[in-house]
Write a structure and sequence with these properties.
The chain is an all-alpha fold. The chain folds into two domains: 113 residues; 168 residues, no CATH class.
């Protein structure tokens, strides 16, 4: 299971103390931060007995106990970033405090920590530009591999790709290809090839939505990225998760004309629980279906693909046609 503390149950309470201390600016953290911390400790680290509001503060010197385990350090750094970006408005005091704890447990060269620093020290626009530039390399690695060369050669307008994708609508209901077309028709999305930026990425991304069982709302986008990170906490999936947090929690727009950034998505009722459902379901998968050759599986029923990867059922069936 990923996102645990390297199976170190003895480190759960100290890790909870570290995270609680990092968000405490004299207020114990905001209500949103405390709820996220509670879900981390109770749902991911499986310690529902820990009351995150009454934890003893951890000094920076004590935090150095985490330096010896790189896996633990990586997990803690991820959650430090998530909690940091859930403070609204983000402040210099919060950034300095999180950076201090991140430095105490190890290096702080992380895209999420850098994003937070730039948001409070530079213009919002400059921070966004730097972040999306960093995201671009991860996006390439997570694109539908068989379409990458085609995109580089033809570009975003590709009528033949559109026709190929629409032909998937001739497959039986319940198959990945047919439900992919139904998904686009239902939500009135442009098909990759109709001018959408990075069509090779969006083919794979949207088929991943269908296999995972998450729709395209803001909370579900963050939940999907959480599920991917729990399946495989690669640097690319960390960037996917950061991207969803940037777009839906922090309000950073990618600059594309068809997307409007939002903020505070995790303050919505039920949203934190949905995101942590993504973490939990992802940790139970037997493989990372988000990096599969989706087009080669388009003829298969989604239910069969889910069985292949041991994907737990979503709490709300999606797409609705799939049992």
């Amino acid at each position: 299971m990923t996102l645990t503390l390297n199976s170190r149950s003895d480190l759960v309470e100290p890790a909870a103390r570290l995270l609680a201390s990092a968000i405490d600016l004299g207020d114990g953290g905001t209500a949103e931060q405390r709820r996220i911390l509670e879900l981390v400790v109770h749902n991911i680290w499986h310690r529902p007995d820990i009351d995150v509001t009454s934890l003893e503060a951890m000094s920076l010197e004590e935090a150095e106990i985490f330096r010896s385990d790189k896996v633990v350090h990586r997990r803690l750094r991820m959650f430090l970033v998530l909690l940091e970006l859930c403070r609204h408005p983000l402040s210099e005091e919060q950034v300095v405090r999180v950076d201090a704890y991140a430095s105490a447990i190890g290096e702080i060269d992380d895209a999420g920590l850098k994003l937070a620093r730039e948001l409070v020290r530079e213009s919002h626009e400059d921070a966004a530009d730097h972040f999306w530039l960093a995201w671009s390399s991860a996006r390439i690695k997570l694109s539908e591999a068989v379409l990458l060369e085609r995109y580089e050669r033809i570009g975003a307008v590709d009528p033949e790709l559109v026709a190929m994708l629409k032909r998937l609508g001739e497959l039986p209901r319940g198959t990945l290809g047919r439900e992919y077309v139904e998904f686009y028709m239902e939500y009135k999305f442009q098909f990759p090839g109709e001018g959408v930026d990075n069509p090779a990425f969006f083919v794979g991304h949207d088929m991943t939505h269908l296999i995972a069982g998450f729709g395209p709302t803001g909370p579900e986008e963050v939940a999907l990225s959480a599920m991917q990170l729990a399946m495989n906490d690669s640097d690319e999936h960390w960037m996917v998760f950061l991207t969803s947090i940037a777009a839906y929690e922090v309000g950073i727009s990618s600059g594309t004309s068809d997307f409007a950034a939002k903020d505070g998505v995790l303050t919505r009722e039920g949203a934190p629980e949905l995101v942590f459902e993504g973490f939990e379901r992802g940790s139970k998968c037997s493989g990372d279906f988000s990096t599969a050759d989706h087009l080669s599986m388009a003829h298969l029923p989604i239910s069969e693909i889910r069985e292949m990867y041991s994907v737990p059922d979503p709490s709300t069936p999606f797409p609705p046609f799939i049992d």
